[in-house]
User: What shape does this take?
Amino acid sequence: MLSGGKILSGTDVAKEIREKLKKDVAEIRRQIPTLVPGLAIVQVGGREDSNVYIRMKIKAAEEIGMYAEHVQLPRSTTQDELLATVKRLNEDPSFHGIIVQMPLDSETPIDGHLITDAVSPDKDVDGLNTVNEGRVAVGDMGGFLPCTPNGCMELIRRSGTPIAGSYAVVIGRSKIVGTPMSELLKWNDATVTVAHSKTKNLNLLIKKADILVVAVGRPEMVRGAWIKPGAVVIDCGINSIPDPTKKSGQRLVGDVKYDEALPVASHVTPVPGGVGPMTVAMLMQNTVQSAQRVARRLIEMEFRWCLKPLPLKLTEPVPSDIEIARAQEPKDVAVLAQEIGIIPSEVSLYGTKKAKVSLKVLERLQYEDDGKYVVVAGITPTPLGEGKSTTLVGLVQALTTQKRCNAIACLRQPSQGPTFGIKGGAAGGGYSQVIPMEDFNLHLTGDIHAVTAANNLLAAQLDARIFHEATQTDQALYERLVPAIKGSRKFAPIQQRRLKRLGIEKTDPYTLTPDEIRRFARLNIDPHNVVWTRVLDVNDRYLRKITIGLSPTEKNLTRDTSFAISVSSEIMAILALATSLEDMKQRLAKMVVAFDKTGAPVTADDLGVTGSMMVLLKDAIEPTLMQTLEGTPVLVHAGPFANIAHGCSSIVADAIGMKLVGKRGYVVTEAGFGSDIGMEKFFNIKCRASGKVPNAVVLVTTVRALKMHGGGPIVTAGAPLRREYMTENLELLEKGLPNLLKHIDNGLKYGVPVVVAINAHGTDTAAEHELIRKAAKAAGAFDAVVSNHWAKGGEGAADLAQAVIDACANPASAFKLLYDIELPIEDKIIKIAKEMYGAGTIELNSKVRDAIRLYTEKGFGRLPICMAKTSMSLTGDASVKGAPKDFKLVINDICLSAGAGFIVPMCGEISKMPGLPTRPSIFDIDLNTETGEIEGLF
Assistant: This one.
């Protein structure tokens, strides 16, 4: 018989554990300053006993430097509402642990087991999810251990009694304590018997126990005489019994008669102050361990995704694009999003193969480092295109699957005009494509349609306003613009903005003077100086010039106007350049749609349309997530034409990509056409707006295009290539090299390394490739690499990927813009023409000079320049090939895109509405009504 047992103080042990956890949290914060371990405590109702426990947990969390949030729901909460709350917390990366406080104090029936199983196993710090319980049952301690049993195990260890080989008795079989306690003891090599209140001869069984754990819920049921001398006694019970000596009239006791047990046992836990504090400590420990797991993934894996590529089944000869695309089953886009670190609440699924990505990603990852930034451009192409998009896709496939880097491709959404016109598709080609290609090439997620709707809503309001001002008095116009509703007039917020622009500080509509009413109500739009046109996403030559207002109802208020293709709308350029919803709203508001009769600009905000356009575009600002043939991520967004607008994918898509790939990853984005057009605008417009600094340029060239520039026969879309392009011809190729060298020089002017990608075709020869490589390197290219991604996918672009990795690691990169934004408009035009095109002089007609003078007077002189020029030549004449010098560039028109934030000089004849050719792709595109498949895209 022992003289007396020791008290196992859970309070003291828990204090030691909290001190250690405090150091662990500090270490997490040292390694990743933005990572704070977070615990969400969900409570339904407001039971006071639950409130006491919650306050204890929050206090413990705060003591160790964790963040704890009490998510309190009303008693009226339904099961579905509670499940939705748990789902939201599961998806919130700021919480590493979630507990649902039991019992649920709800007016409606709620299945508690269903709720605990709804908590993600990765955040189930209570250890009550069936998955975590199952792990314990089979001896897998890699999940979260249930808090109370784990706390009991820690107290047993502190007693010094060896667990292995001991005989343990657990009284109680509850899911929360008894059952998992027996499993933990068993897997720590104790021999375990589980008993309960109905076990026969319970006292005799207890008498054999070296370790006794009691969790039966009966006050002081276990007597001292039942206990084996020297046993360790862990009392998990907490019961309230009457005690007239206490002020409350109640006293807390355990399931063991403490006063009787202490003289017999070697160690006994008190109640309170025993198991209770340990439960809270283990809860904190589990939450910190969860945060440590996140930290390890971020540090040890260096932000590397757990991405599973899709294998390619390469065949020769290479099948058609549509055959290749259809042979590859894309992975579920929700899985892809998870693989690259997007949480479920940040994606809106459009079926299973495409999804919108929320801008909330940028907020969540705002403190993370950006990845490397690579832009793909080309030389001056043939009408067939030189595979710029295909190269971009192949490069990203190679970076991801061959070089094991995080990499995202950022591409523009194709317009339906070219899809049904000549190109037939723009998803890449061969084994370097975006899939499903049908979705990519057609409606996708409706962004172009949203731009079309917003553009035409503005056009409709503009013409309606001209009509109403022409047919109403000042007072009648004012009363309709500010109608009396229930006897009171009130300015809309957008009208208040107009008043401020007019210098009218009044807010009461009844106090405006007649002059103020006139100034407010009348925009006085000059019908002969309207610059806004309607748009449509098809090629339709007969809409290049139209007359509107011919209906008798329009009272002879006719005017000539036109349609443009939707992707040429300034709204599309804004979508690509906006950095946030608020930025997009401000840009839309500033769009100049016309000039009044005094020459002052009239904006979309003056017409009151800004808010309505935002409603139509609210989803369009989110990029669309798709994938390549190899299952690597692609962000598809915006589609501004490069010969009309700035021709680049969106700022937000690039920004989201650079956060998702991490500091060791790569975002490869496109700039339309050649370095003279898309790349120049990428640097001077897009990078100026985003503030992002590119690390490298990939310049795509082909043997075919260089032979054309060397004087080869005309290349025509749809016509067979001439013999010169199908056989080796080094002389012709060498004559065309100056075009490539000019584009290399253009890239180097920005202080960025240029990697030349020679997009290989089957008719090329090794000698032709080597000639290009040597010339490119001699001209200052960082590297020149032959890439066979069309035939081999990522494997064929492995060398190109390595060259890009090496270029991005080059410390010599010192990015600089081409011109100072403060330069006068004409000087900026001259700078671009001379430096990028090789022009000697520019010619501005009187109309252009007058417009430049007006833009400067109205405060638009500091905007960058967005040159509208043919993509088929470095000059303004599409027929001129090679790299001519000192030519005259004629600027025959100029327009203002104040919302997009640039001025557009037009070189030569530029049409914003393409026409259909004699035999468009329309003839080939069809729907197979038996299979439901789209045919004819290529």
Notes: The first strand starts at residue 6 and ends at 7. Residues 275-300 form the longest helix (26 residues). Residues 75 and 106 are 4 Å apart (CA to CA). The mean pLDDT is 93.
